[in-house]
Predict the structure.
Amino acid sequence: MTKKYIDILDEESMDPLDRKAYEIILKSSSNGGIIQSMLWKMLGVDSREGSKIVLRLIKRGLITRKKISYEGKQTYMLNAVTNNNQKINIYVSLDNMWSIPCFTCDLLFTCGKSSTVTPLNCSKLSEFLLTYSADIIKSYNILRKP
Ligand code: SF4
């Protein structure tokens, strides 16, 4: 078990039943997870309380819930979020893309190694990169201020 998960389990703020549920889900995850009704049985809780526990763990980003069909019934398979299956949302803004001079440059298709104009000696591109990098550094410094 990695330090991250030990820290989570040691967290004082975590409800003891949530912690127990998380431990069970974490252990079962190496074998494909656990069906939520089985988890409820192991915890000794009813479906109402069990659902609340599962939702709290999902909200904390500790587990995932996948709809499955089991013995002819729709249910959920629960798995712990680990580094291997953790979903990370990365938001990339393309707003600045159109300010890159090459996209609107008449020389785009002739620019290059065999041309007299190359990205290495292009003043438009150099100016853009200097401005852009200055903006990034400025934003970074603003973000770092306490
Ligand atoms: S590097 Fe300069 S010349 Fe080449 S395509 Fe970009 S803006 Fe145009």
